[in-house]
Amino acid sequence: METSSSSSDVKIIFSTDDVSESPPVLDEKLRKLKDLLLKSDNRICADCGAVDPKWASSNIGVFICLKCSGVHRSLGTHISKVMSVILDEWSDEQIDSMIEVGNFYANSIYEAFLPPGYSKPNPNSTYEERAEFFRNLAIRDMLSSDPYVVLTLGQQRAQTTVIKSNLNPVWNEELKLSVPESYGALKVQVFDHDVISSDDIMGEAKVDLQPMIAGVMAFGDPDLLADMPIGKWLKSTDNALISDSPINIIDGKVKQEVSLKLQRVESGEIDMELQWIPLNQ
Ligand SMILES: [Zn+2]
User: Could you tell me which residue ranges the C2 domain spans (predicted)?
Assistant: First the structure.
């Protein structure tokens, strides 16, 4: 027996840019940074709007205030690399990302993705309010994510193509894996392709294939059946599901919609459609 799973409408968001250090040319760099800070949008914190930010997230590309820098720092450097504008040594690459993104561009993205009725923190917001804002942000790495998805089932591995610099990549690719007699969970991993260093993991999740296979076993040949639900993988605190994942017969095919929240990462979701293909087809 075989299942094929095609991922589609995949939303991924991260900041996992590797930053390589180059020898400091301090004056020149500091001048560039100070020029950037003179731009009106960079004169207020990208997150809360406090005036005169002296900190930055060099991989995200935004200038932030001291209080917000604490929230960024708590997320770890793989999410946000917090640097002092004045005290730290900046690489050319880091300065470039500040030039390419900056608070204006970042804010236009944030605003487009803020949930309805949700407002940004202000300079008086508590730490919790700032952290909450960050959790709700869907977008972080605006420039450097080249994501691809790897599926692993037992010894088998299949992967999608790499999508260059995309915030909301859509793969729309079909990957086939055969389900062995005894199977474990289907592992879904998203990586950021990196030509220089090894690829960074951008999150992972597991799919329990048991509900689909139980449905197939119980109902038999889907070709002979009308469209109907044959099972459901239920969202729980133990799995990565965003919502219950229904398994249906549609046009003689067993299909399952799966929406996963990526684990081991600050944010990111992935939608997939699994399809069961009996071996005789
Ligand atoms: Zn702030």
Answer: 108-223
* 3-state secondary structure at position 161: coil
> Tens digit of pLDDT for each residue in 69-99?
999 998 888 778 999 998 899 998 899 889 8
Lookup: tokens for 119: 């407002």
- What is the Cα–Cα distance from 261 to 269, expressed in whole angstroms? 5
Q: Are 65 and 55 in contact (CB under 8 A)?
A: yes
261 C-alpha to ligand 1 centroid (Å):
27
CA distance 157 to 186: 10
Residue recorded with tokens 């020898």: 23
Task: Please tell me the distance between residue 45's alpha carbon and the centre of ligand 1 in angstroms.
Answer: 5
Distance 98 CA to ligand 1 centre (A): 16
Q: Is the pTM of this model over 0.85?
A: no
Per-residue pLDDT tens over the stretch 104-126: 888 877 766 666 666 788 999 99
- The reply to whether 39 and 68 lie within a common domain is yes
Cα of 134 vs centre of ligand 1, distance in Å, is 11
* Angle, in degrees to the nearest 10, between helices 92-100 and 102-113: 50
Find the 197 Cα to ligand 1 centroid distance in Å: 32
Distance 111 CA to ligand 1 centre (A): 16
Q: What pLDDT was estimated at residue 229?
A: 94
Q: How far is the CA of 223 from the centre of ligand 1 (A)?
A: 58
Same domain, 10 and 149: yes
Number of domains in the chain: 2
pLDDT, one tens digit per residue, over 159-180 is 988 776 665 677 788 888 988 8
CATH number at 264 reads: 2.60.40.150
State which residues form the domain around 38: 26-136
